[in-house]
Write a structure and sequence with these properties.
Elements lengths: L1 E6 L5 E2 L3 E8 L7 E7 L2 E3 L4 E9 L6 E9 L4 E7 L4 E4 L5 E5 L9 E11 L2 E2 L6 E9 L4 E3 L1 E7 L8 H8 L6 H19 L5 E3 L9 H8 L12 E5 L10 E2 L14 H18 L7 H7 L11 H8 L27 E2 L2 E5 L3 H8 L4 E5 L3 H5 E6 L9 E8 L3 E5 L11 E5 L16 E4 L2 E2 L4
Helix pairs in contact: 4-6
Length: 454
């Protein structure tokens, strides 16, 4: 298996920008071929690149097949197939480039072997298309595994951030605001220090929040409320099986949204979970109205904060309106009616507070979680972030999957933040989990129905 991972920095990757390439052989005892080296160590955007794996095989190969599965942000999912002894080329979706299999020089004798992959990315790759996985599995004429190599590609940081005036022009702020400029420059200094730290596992960059201090940012955006009694029906607690073994999961959920300057993360985390379960059950994408929760869920406090369980308490047994009929305004308003989506929810299951509890739940569906987002979370750009394990919370989000060393989270700050609106947080069993992710009970909506076509 060859797995290519493209991770985004803020901004658009242009021709000449480079992706750092690292690799590992992922074959086991049943895999006949093993890699000793993969070259080059950098991939250049806008150019033809050949990735060559050299190694050996303990079994002759006369024929076989491969299947390449591409998954990425914005719901991208493509599968390609071919014969191992023949060259094949595939167009990546949305014009971002091409992926090619060079074809093995069959018959391949026992001993040294070389395998080539071609990769060409377009001369400009926007943030929203810059995160993808290509899983390439090769088997021989007898259906036995022939090779397994993981290649990891990540855009290299430029090491510089835009000037305050450049940043202000990009995000529509006043470039003459000296107070904001001082805050921005302080954030840039911290970002550059993090990026220069060899122990950091993520990349940080300026974004739409870089003109605020962390305290200002937290007061406006990080308004999830702490644990309290819950009166919505809890149908069950999702506990891991005794023999549970974590593998990987990556749910195709609804698109990333933007809560704007309203502290309504709790509403987005709630409806993101309901939309995800609905899509999982029906295959259909529905856009549910966060503004309905902001205006109508009186147990919560609108743009001043709330909780997903309180939100489900309000929605239980009620019509959930469409965003088209009840548009999001990013401010508190008066409760009114809208067009019923046909989607309803009856309650939720809460998830055992542990890594195995969360990962086993993620094997079944996306999970709404509460985290403690700190200043690194605020300035996150790409990669797997090493998080504190504090036992606190301030932000509601949607966990959508996990890998061998991370949990993948969908945020509600638009696609210009993080990896096209997502963040990967490093897995740990310490404390209350990464960013306190199981300090509060993660929840999964239950009884999600689509009574009419949506």
């Amino acid at each position: 298996m060859s797995k290519l991972v493209f991770a985004s920095l803020v901004g658009t990757g242009l021709a000449g920008d480079k992706l750092a390439l690292t690799w590992e052989d992922c074959g086991d005892a049943s895999t006949h071929g093993h890699a000793d080296d993969v070259q080059p160590t950098e991939i250049v955007i806008g150019q033809d690149n050949t990735i060559t794996a050299t190694g050996s095989t303990d079994k002759a190969i006369s024929s076989g097949s491969f299947t390449a599965k591409l998954t990425g942000s914005l719901g991208i999912s493509e599968t390609y197939t071919g014969k191992v002894c023949e060259a094949s080329e595939f167009n990546l979706p949305l014009g971002i480039g091409t992926l090619s299999w060079a074809g093995m020089a069959c018959p391949v004798a026992v001993g040294p072997v070389t395998v080539g992959l071609g990769l060409k990315l377009a001369s400009a790759v926007p943030d929203t298309l810059a995160t993808a996985d290509v899983a390439l599995t090769a088997v021989d004429q007898d259906g036995e595994p022939a090779l397994c190599v993981n290649n990891h590609l990540e855009r290299e940081a430029s090491g510089t951030q835009p000037t305050f005036q450049e940043w202000a022009a990009q995000y529509g702020f006043n470039g003459a605001d000296t107070t904001m400029e001082a805050k921005y420059n302080a954030n840039v200094e911290q970002i550059e220090a993090w990026n220069a730290d060899p122990e950091e596992t993520a990349t940080y960059a300026v974004n739409q929040f870089s003109g605020m201090t962390y305290d200002e940012f937290a007061a406006q955006y990080l308004t999830a409320k702490p644990l309290s009694d819950m009166d919505v029906p809890i149908l069950q607690e999702l506990a891991p099986e005794e023999d549970f073994v974590a593998t990987e999961s990556d749910w195709n959920v609804t698109p990333v949204k933007n809560q704007g300057s309203c502290g309504s993360c709790w509403a987005f985390g709630t409806l993101g979970g309901i939309e995800a379960v609905h899509k999982q059950h029906t295959g259909a994408t529905v856009n549910l109205a966060e503004q309905q929760l902001v205006d109508c869920s009186t147990q919560n406090n609108g743009c001043s904060g709330g909780r997903p369980d309180w939100a489900i308490n309000y929605l239980s047994g009620k019509s959930i309106y469409t965003t088209a009929s009840y548009p999001y305004t990013a401010r508190d308003g008066s409760c009114r009616s809208g067009t019923a989506s046909g989607v309803t929810v009856s309650g939720y299951s809460r998830v055992t507070k542990s890594e195995s509890g969360l990962l086993s739940a993620l094997d079944k569906s996306a999970v709404t979680v509460m985290v403690y987002a700190d200043s690194k979370f605020q300035s996150y750009s790409s990669g797997v972030i090493t998080a504190s394990t504090t036992c606190s919370l301030n932000h509601a989000v949607l966990a959508t999957g996990y890998g061998s060393n991370y949990i993948k989270i969908k945020n509600s700050w638009g696609t210009g933040w993080g990896e096209a609106g997502y963040i990967r947080v490093g897995r740990t069993t310490s404390g209350c989990g990464p960013f306190g992710i199981w300090y509060d009970y993660p929840v999964v909506p239950t009884g999600v129905n689509a009574a009419v076509e949506v």
